[in-house]
Every structure is written in C-alpha cells, then in structure tokens.
Amino acid sequence: MASVPAGHGSVPLPSSAKAGNSRSPAALLLRQLFRRRLVVLSFLIMLAILAVALLAPWITPFNPMKMDILGRLKPPTAAHWFGTDEYGRDVLSRVMLGARLSLLVGLLVVVVATVLGTLLGLAAGYIRPLDGLLMRLTDALMAFPDILLAIAFMAALGPSLYNVVLALGIVYTPRVARVVRAACLVVREMPFIEAATALGASTPRIVFLHILPNLMSPILVQATFIFAYAILTEAALSFLGVGVPPTTPTWGNMIASAQQYFQQADWLILFPGCAIVLTVLSLQIVGDGLRDALDPRLQKAK
Amino acid sequence: MLVYIVRRFAGMMVVMLLVAMVVFLIARVVPGDPAAVMLGSSATPDDIAALRGRLGLDEPLLTQFLLYLGQIVRFDLGESIFLNRPVAQALAERSELTGLLTMMSVGIAMLIGVPVGILSAAKRGGLVDQTAVGLAMLAASIPSFWIGLTLIKYLAVDHAWFPVAGYGPPDADLLERMRHLVLPAIALGIPNSALILRFTRTSMLDVMSHDYVRTARAKGLPPLVVVLKHALRNAMIPILTVIGLTTAVMIAGAIVTETVFGLPGVGNLIVSAVLRRDYPVIQGALLVVSAIYVLINLTVDLLYAVVDPRVRY
C-alpha cells in the first residue's frame, strides 16, 4: 500500500461526480469519503473481497474440500495459482471460501457488538443512575487485553463459530458503548431534545428517534474498525486452536494447519496471510476515511 | 499528590473487584457441571463430587465469590488441575520468559515507533511522512503470528541466523536466551510499533502547532533542537501513555507469539490450560495479567508528574 501515496485532492470519479449532484446525506458522505484516492482504492478492494465471499461457493476454481493425495503440497502452478495444501486441496479455492467464513465472523461480531454496545451506551448516557455502574463494568472488561478475554470466553464456551462471534462480540461491546455514551452525553443537552421533552415525547421515543440518529457517525466509524479487529482476533484464536473448529477453513485455521508444512511450502501461509492483511488494511483505511469524512471539525476546516 | 494517589488506588481496587467478578463468572458460565467438564468423560461420580467439594461448587454463588475473593487477597490462586502445583507457582515459573519477551518487544516497538513518529511529524505531509504512516497502517494489519512464521521460514530455516524455536538449553545464559527471543520480539514488536508511531506523530504535531514552538523557530534555533528539546518534551505524555498501553497489550500478544515459537512462557501455559480446560490456571492468569494491565496504567498516570512539571495532582 505504500506504493500508493495518499492524495488529498478530489478525484474525478463517476461516482463522486454523481454524488455531487444529489444532496442526500449518504451522497454527501460518499463524496467526502472519496476525496482520497487511497480510500477509493481500499473501498473497491473491500467490495471485491466481499463479492468473492458472497459468491465463493459458485466461483472457486476447484472444490475447496476435494483431496488429491498425489497432488499434495504442490507449489503455485498455472492450474493451481496458490498451490495445493497437505491434502492436495486447491489453496486458492480455500482462501476464497475462507473469505466467506472470516468475513461472516467479522460481520456478525460487528452486529453483536454494535447492537449491545449501542443499547448499553444509550442507557449509560441517558439514564443517569445507570451511568456509573455501566461504565465501571466497561472499565473492568477493558482491563483485559482483547485476545486474552476472548480466549477466556472461548475456554468457557467451547470452540465453535458462533461462540467465537459471541466471545468477540462481548469483547468489543465496551468500545462501542463508550463511544455511544460520550456522543449521547453531548446530544442529550441540545435544545431540540429539550423541545422534544417539553412536547411530552416518551423516553424511548427521545432516545431512539431523536438521539440515536445523531450518533450514527461515531457508531459507523467504530463498526468499521471492529470489523477489522474481529477478523484479526478471530484469525489469532483459530491459529491457537481455541477458535473456529479446525475443519472449517477460515484464514486463521488455514495458517494453523499449515504450521507443520510451511517450512517447505511457504505458499500455504503466504496466501491466507495476504488475504488477512489486505482485508484488514482496506477496512482500516476506509475506517480512517470515514472518520475524516464524518468529523464535523474537519468539514468546517474545508 | 498523595490524595490523588489514594483516590486513583481506590478506583483501581473497584475495577479489580469487577475484574475478579468477571474472572469468577467465566468458570461458572461453562455449560453443565464445571467439575464434570474439567475431569472429562472418564470421571466417576465420586471424583466429580470430590472436585465439587474441593472447588466449593456446592456453596451458594455469592458465598463462592466471597471465598474466591478471600483467596485472592491472600495471593492464593488455587491449584492447577493438571500440573499438580499451585497456579501462582506455575505462573511464576513461566514469567521470566514472558517478561523478557515483553521487554524486548516493547524495546523494538519503541525504537521503531518513537523516532519514526518524530521524523514523520517533523516532515509533515512529505514523502517520508506518508510512507511512514502508510507502513504503520500496514504493520497494524498484519497478524503477529504470520510475521512470526514468515521470520522463521526466511531467517531461521532458509538462513540459520536465528534459532527456529524454543528457549535454549536449561543452563543457557541470559544472552543465549535473548538470542532465542529476537525473532519472537520482532514478530510481536512490529504490529505494536504502529500504534506508538501514530501516537507519537499526532502528539508531536499537536505540540508543534503551539506558539512557543513558533517562537523557538523564530529565534533561529536549529530545527533539531526545536523538535527534540522544545517539542518532544511536551509531547511525551501521550507517548508514555501509549507505550504503557502497548506493554500491557504485548503481554497478551505473547500468548500467540509463544505458540508460534514453541516458547514455554505464560502464554503457552494459558493456551494449554484452555485446551485442557484447567480453569484455575485460566482464572489465575487472567487475574494476574489484568492486574498488571491496570497497574501499568496507574504507573503511567503517576509518571506524568515526573515528565511534565506542570502536572500537579
């Protein structure tokens, strides 16, 4: 990625030009977001990986589960672009299927953490008596490094894909909760909330209809980063053998099962590793871009 | 100052109490009977009843928690189920390696992150800055275990510059042990240098926009003096914070790195405890690592006063 320097000029892309004509918030956001070429590139890479993940069962060149003992541990060739693994399975097909599973885990973690974190954050930010208790609880959860807490939950829950989602979801919930609470404390004091209260709006109506829509920017940014962290942490858990069961080819599992062979067959770890790096990197760049695009202070400066 | 320390310490105790609660509950949310799960399918009902008795599982939950707290206060972390020794002893035996690994990794992460971050801020927007920021983002996206495996393949297998795995013979001296930890420390240090670099850069940029820095420049001081003497000193607080934070994160990161390099440290102990469902070890390790994490954060906060004479508590 270092070969593509971050440009600050606006880019004459069809999408951004089109977005400029309409005035919907989403179009304005995209226009802001795509001011930097690197963000556009990362966004496209993200879409491509997502497309591979969605279409994986239909577009893999070989059956990712089909073994071929005679053709095992073959380096990359014209037929097998990424080589074959210790059972003669096509590594490219497995990396493509791995995209489906790793992205699924990441996405589900984002959903769990965002929903739980938003509810807790809103509760802490709007219901004063709950604030202290909930925030000390997030302090306690954040006193464990992510990976260690995730390992501990996995030890209690046992290895399965949905337990990984649950464990990582709980691990990342406090991050969302803190951001939502902080933003909620600001929005809560605004005159339009006072107006809504004066008009007799109920608490749920104020929280979900008036406050929540104003917190979407920080939640969106946080969700993007959690997506990236979740993919990294899932890979580490699976690598340690305490994550998704080893028969499921997530990227972390592929690297874990290659451990015995990688000294002779480095393609076994090279390609799944590159898939992780590319995905996490493009998510982080898009996340940074979103933060810049959504930051009201930066917008005023322009 | 004393009042502040006492207040911070009290706050820390509250967090640690909640941490202990989380740690306690983790071994209680296990589906089914924890004693049966720990002993496996071959256990007889008598064995299970005996372990239940030993672990105090027949008491009410609150009593169990209070008993657990009582143990912790006496630094008793319980007995390992598989290692036949106290958890505290098992942790102590493994802590030398993990401590050394963490220190070396923090050193590497600092040596990369701080100077490059300063340079990046001094040359803001230039090619060096953009490359550094880009590389930092790349480094933060690479799983440390993947860096580890790649280093083993190219530097230890293809060229025998470093040992492939392990911690050397039992009688190896400190230097020999450190040689075994060079590759693990790089694998762990590189991803973590990214955060230090970004914080250093942001903090330096923030300080360098202040009037007194402009004045220093206007006086005609050499740029190097302005950056290193005037700006850096005031930019140290966020840098210190992030180094403290990174240290704690690396203790956890060591779990993965030790597995890659087959190192018999605390991380290795934790992973095998999880695979064997040795809950007392998992709980003890969680408690100790999070206590270190919290203590480091406290230490960093107190260090502020030393670094910045304006800070008075």
TrEMBL record, chain A:
Q: Which GO terms describe its biological process?
A: transmembrane transport
Pfam families tied to this protein = BPD_transp_1, OppC_N
Record-annotated ABC transmembrane type-1 domain positions: 103-287
Q: Which GO terms describe its cellular component?
A: plasma membrane
PANTHER family per UniProt: OLIGOPEPTIDE TRANSPORT SYSTEM PERMEASE PROTEIN APPC, PEPTIDE ABC TRANSPORTER PERMEASE PROTEIN
Homology family:
Belongs to the binding-protein-dependent transport system permease family.
Supply the name of the protein: Peptide ABC transporter permease
| Native source organism of the sequence | Azospirillum palustre
The uppermost taxa in this organism's lineage are: Bacteria, Pseudomonadati, Pseudomonadota, Alphaproteobacteria, Rhodospirillales
Automatic annotation (TrEMBL), chain B:
List, alphabetically, the InterPro entries matched: BPD_transp_1_N, MetI-like, MetI-like_sf
**Per the database record, which ranges form the ABC transmembrane type-1 domain?**
95-304
Into which family does the record put it? Belongs to the binding-protein-dependent transport system permease family.
Subcellular localization: Cell membrane
Asked if the Swiss-Prot or TrEMBL record annotates the protein with the keyword Lipid metabolism, the reply is no
The record's principal subcellular location, in a coarse class, is: membrane
Residues annotated as transmembrane: 9-30, 100-121, 133-156, 181-200, 239-261, 281-307
* Leader peptide range in chain numbering: none
Q: What is the protein name given in its UniProt record? A: Peptide ABC transporter
State the annotated membrane topology for this chain. Answer: Multi-pass membrane protein
UniProt xrefs under Pfam families: BPD_transp_1, BPD_transp_1_N
One GO cellular component term noted in the UniProt record for this chain: plasma membrane
Q: Which UniProt keywords apply?
A: Cell membrane, Membrane, Transmembrane, Transmembrane helix, Transport
UniProt key word Cytoplasm: no
Please give the biological process terms from Gene Ontology that the record holds. Answer: transmembrane transport
